[in-house]
Amino acid sequence: SAEDALIGVLKGRSAVVAIDEGRIRPQNWDKCVQALPEATIIPGKAIFAKARMVKHPQEIELLRFAAQASEQSLLEMLAAVRPGVTERGMERSYGMAMYARGAEPTYYVGVVDERTAFSDTRSTGLAVRSGSLLRFDFGGSYHGYRADLARTAVYGPADPRAEAAYAAVEAGAKAAIAAVRPGRTADEIFRIAVQETRRAGL
Q: What is the enclosing helix (H) or strand (E) of 132?
């Protein structure tokens, strides 16, 4: 186990060891403390969170690959969608496309029509039809580096109400992106997005 490996490396050494308390079971923490009496074991969650904010070029490439594999897999799956394909069928196709790229699907929500209002839901037997609105919240992992994306699509001609709603949300998103600058808070950017989306009619 990871704990046994850590103990094996540090046995008999005097050291200060930070362990991410959010990723270890309490009994395994106690195991490390008892097996390493010479070491001082401290909570490291905050330390690692700060360190993880900085990415070196190889990490950025791994993140980029995870995002590209996720995006390409979704596009491949969408290219094969036809009327009668179910939410479950789309999820299976997405997963297979991810594995074919050497990545793993780590999260997937793909919903159709009235279920597009639901978040964090399981795939069902609801099938795509002409004009169906599709919403995806999905992502994947490559060597432990994860991507998290969201996309919407329409199969066939879009309902005018869906087109109007999409245009309003797009206007809000573009306004938010244009508002990003050093010193501006996420709260301010969010408010700009909401204001512009409402101005655009939604």
A: none
Helix, strand, or coil (residue 18): strand
Residues 6 or more apart in contact with residue 2 via CB below 8 angstroms = none
Residues 122, 88: Cα–Cα separation, whole Å: 9
Give every residue of the chain whose pLDDT is below 50, as ranges: none
Inter-axis angle of helices 160-179 and 186-199, nearest 10: 150
Number of Cβ within 10 Å of residue 16's Cβ equals 9
Q: Which residues of 43-57 are buried (b: 16+ CB within 10 A; e: fewer)?
A: ebeeebeeeeeeeee
pTM recorded for the entire structure: 0.75
Residue 119 corresponds to which tokens in the numbers above?
């978040």
The Cα diameter of the chain in Å comes to: 70
